[in-house]
Protein: Ribonuclease 3
Organism: Candidatus Syntrophonatronum acetioxidans
Amino acid sequence: MDIDKNLQDIEKKIKIEFNNKNLLKQALTHTSYAHEYFKDKCYHNERLEFLGDAVLELIVSEYLYEAFPDLPEGELTRLRANIVCEVSLVKGAKGINLGDYIFLGKGELSMGGRERPSILADAFEALMGALYIDQGYITAKRIALNLLGDVMEELQKGIIYKDYKTMLQEHFQKTSYSTPQYKIIRESGPDHDKIFEAQVMVNDQVLGEGRGKSKKEAEQSAASRAWDRLRNNCLP
């Protein structure tokens, strides 16, 4: 593998020239490669991955906060979690064929490591960490939002605008002929800034809880959490 060409190719993909090439090289170095080829066994991308994870969380949080001023905290948190999850990061990585440029040990290569989701997602985070150090937050943000643009648009359309109460009701009416029931279990805060907490139940079983600044918002939040559990087969 031509290391210099690898670095140049990924720089062309993201349209940035690194000041510190070693930083980019480290971001693309998997632990298996470091253990096989380097005397310094710590010269791999795990620390940059740690930093990149935090950088991505901030970038996505800031974007969502500014883009959706009326979305409650719970929905922002859930949407962010979907954007920075492994599945989404793998899509971002595949958008620039990142797997082709990762330095992997022979064993990892033989097992198809270039396509392994965890390796791709980790390398994507490490690349963001390296960009943050080498180019600064603004550039890292621009590149991250560009690479995750399709994912974010897809999630916004598919998640933000869903009516979870209706979806939940339709599901249970089809599968068990039951209707979800909602109950406000707690109110807190002054009259001008109340927070409501709601539960959604089916056959006296609590499926989800949520919070909001209105009863309707709290019920939607509870329904969305129940829907997530249902989708992930987490309901008992």
